[in-house]
Design goal:
With 187 residues, the chain is mostly helical. The chain is built from 2 helices and 2 strands.
Length: 187
Amino acid sequence: MMTRGSKARQAEEQLRLALQELKTYRVQCEQLLRERDENEKELEKIFKKNTELKNQMSQMYTEYTNVKNENENLLKIVNGFDQCRDEYEETLKFNSELKHQLHEANKQVIQLKNINHSLTASQTQCLYNELVENAPNLVSSVSNLKNNISVIDLTSDDSNTTIPMPKGSELNPPGCFIVGWRGDFLL
């Protein structure tokens, strides 16, 4: 049987153990409360960081959208430059073709001027030959026609000077032909 003293010791022992457990639980509780406070602070930091990251991501997405739109605009501009370059190259090609045609036309004009010059010289020679061959007849016909000849033009300008020819004379002596130049047309 247990005596009161042993019961009291046992009760005291239990109380001591309970007190030690209580102290241990209190220390653990304080430690858990500190850890909870630290975890709450850490969670607040994480939430703040998360909010900052979300804001940065939103800003980066806005910048990405702006850059993407700018890229599309630049691509349109580059495509416009490509189209302008193609048109410029076509214009240069057309210009080159026109220069070639102009060169060919100038060559043809020079050739026609040379032909006109030689024909003018030939006509002048024919007129001279005709005047020399018909000089005796012209002198007699001039006296018969009462001095109807005022000017004899051997320079082959565009004036129409008429020279009366005696009856029975040839208008175009053999080996001679008459060619006149009027503006841009060869007659």
